């Protein structure tokens, strides 16, 4: 707070209060699904930029969606969740590739604690150079020549084809 990174906050005074905080935090995912559709992004950003994307997405999407962000201030990991009544290609077009480009422009990674997953493997170039991705694919092929470990969840399929 002294450095201006945090405007407001609460620290648990005992184990019961800490448990209550965790129940609230863990309940965000379940509560979000009650809205309808949730577009989820797991980003890693410099701490001083951690919440800026939430504000920018709120401005960008206006009344079309609710935008929430929560995560881990200590390691710069932000869970960006965008909630709408139903999935919509027009909303998705306003989100992607903007969220990936914004993250890249702010020296972040589009893959934080939950990894790229199946849906975002082909977006890795927003966070890693082509050379790095090729090196990663080479190491993956060396360690997993049959492609049976976590298939398609790390790198684009085109780089893993034999």
Overall pLDDT score: 86
Largest sheet: number of strands, sense, barrel closure: 3 strands, antiparallel
Structural class category: alpha+beta
Number of DSSP-assigned strands: 3
Query: Which ranges are low-confidence, i.e. pLDDT below 50, for 5 or more consecutive residues?
Result: none
User: How widely separated are the two ends?
Assistant: 52 Å
Secondary-structure element string:
HEHEEHHHH
Helix content: 25-40%
The number of helical segments is 6
CATH topology of the largest domain: Alpha-Beta Plaits
Number of domains: 2
What fraction of residues sit in β-strands? 5-15%
Give the CATH level 1 class of the largest domain.
Answer: Alpha Beta
| Widest beta sheet: strand line-up | 1-3-2
Nearest-angstrom radius of gyration?
18 Å
Shape annotation: globular
**CATH architecture classification of the largest domain:** 2-Layer Sandwich
Name a few traits of the molecule.
Alpha-Beta Plaits, 6 helices, 162 residues, 3 strands, Vanillyl-alcohol Oxidase, Chain A, domain 4, alpha+beta
């Amino acid at each position: 707070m002294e450095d201006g990174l945090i405007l407001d906050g609460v620290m648990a005074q005992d184990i019961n209060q800490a448990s209550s905080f965790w129940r609230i935090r863990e309940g965000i995912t379940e509560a979000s699904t009650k809205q309808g559709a949730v577009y989820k992004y797991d980003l890693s950003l410099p701490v001083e930029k951690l919440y800026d994307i939430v504000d920018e997405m709120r401005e960008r999407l206006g009344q079309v969606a609710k935008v929430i962000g929560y995560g881990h201030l200590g390691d710069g990991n932000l869970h960006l969740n965008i909630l709408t009544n139903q999935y919509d290609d027009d909303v998705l077009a306003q989100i992607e590739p903007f969220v990936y480009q914004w993250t890249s422009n702010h020296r972040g990674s589009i893959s934080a604690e939950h990894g790229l997953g199946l849906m975002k493997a082909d977006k890795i170039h927003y966070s890693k150079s082509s050379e790095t991705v090729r090196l990663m694919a080479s190491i993956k092929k060396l360690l997993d020549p049959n492609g049976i470990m976590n298939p398609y969840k790390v790198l684009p399929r085109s780089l893993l084809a034999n």
